[in-house]
Amino acid sequence: MAFIPGGTFVMGSDDEQARPDEQPLHTVQIADFWMDSTEVTNRDFLAFTEATGYTTTAEKDFSYTLPDGTQVQQKAGSLVFSVPANDHAGVADWWQFVEGANWRHPQGPGSDIEGKEDFPVVHISWYDAVAYARWCGKRLPTEAEWEYAARSGKAGMRYPWGNEPVTEGKIKCNSWNGRFPYQNTATDGYTRSAPVKQYPANAAGLYDMGAMCGNGAATGMASIFMRLAKKILT
Ligand SMILES: [Ca+2]
């Protein structure tokens, strides 16, 4: 874990790339805390499931109700990113619900995590993340803590590494290279997720803080990359 000294910072952004929900800018005070320097890996999560017998949300059958009241029984699964044929496809075409997709089978039946012990665990729900965190004696970081740690004391910075666009200079993170969502040139070496610590850490000693969006796009929105925090007890 990396120690993140507390302080105040301006949360949010009015940059041209900022989303409406990142505004208005506001000052936030953060207490000292520790944060995992990488995402939770498959190795980490396997230790948890072996110790506890925990079953993730994506491994459980579920049911839902349609607007007309019809009850639908659904086999367990999760959303997997699927490359559409062209850029005219909508968001709904990028994602497919794949029965049998879960953290042990990231692309569904026939895929596995063998040799991917150092990859971030994926297809993890909020409930799974909280259960894992409790088992570790940690908790999920708040959004403010995340942003404060990603900025690592550098006010107004656009990305965890500075302001240089992801497409310029050295490769800084695992992102989508080429034309999203139908052409992935993988010039950073990975079409989907990458093992942790493949790219330089930020000034706070945290790896892959800028890879969330890119990895999220490449591996699926249902793939939450857990990074856990621990409060300093005073
Ligand atoms: Ca990539």
Description:
- The radius of gyration is 19 Å and the shape is globular.
- Residues 212-224 have low confidence and may be disordered.
- The longest helix has 11 residues, at 42-52.
- Helices cover 18% and strands 16% of the residues.
- β5 (62-65) and β6 (71-74) form a beta hairpin.
- The strands form four sheets. The protein has a three-stranded antiparallel β-sheet with strand order 1-4-9, with no helix packed on it. It has a two-stranded antiparallel sheet with strand order 2-3.
- It has five helices and nine strands, in the order ββββαβββαβαααβ.
- With 234 residues, it is of the alpha+beta class.
- Bound molecules: calcium ion (CA).
Identify the overall geometry.
globular
Our measurement of the CA-to-CA distance between the termini, rounded to an integer number of angstroms, reads 18 Å
The largest pleated sheet is described as:
3 strands, antiparallel
| Average predicted confidence as pLDDT | 85
Poorly predicted tracts of residues? 212-224
Total DSSP helices: 5
Query: What's the SSE pattern?
Result: EEEEHEEEHEHHHE
Topology:
Elements: E1 2-4, E2 7-11, E3 26-30, E4 33-35, H1 42-52, E5 62-65, E6 71-74, E7 77-81, H2 91-94, E8 95-99, H3 126-136, H4 143-151, H5 212-219, E9 229-231
Antiparallel strand pairs: 1-4, 2-3, 4-9, 5-6, 7-8
Calcium ion is lined by residues 174-175, 177, 186, 188, 190, 218.
Please name the defining characteristics of this protein.
alpha+beta; 234 residues; single chain; globular; two-stranded antiparallel sheet; binds calcium ion; 9 strands; 3-stranded antiparallel sheet; 5 helices
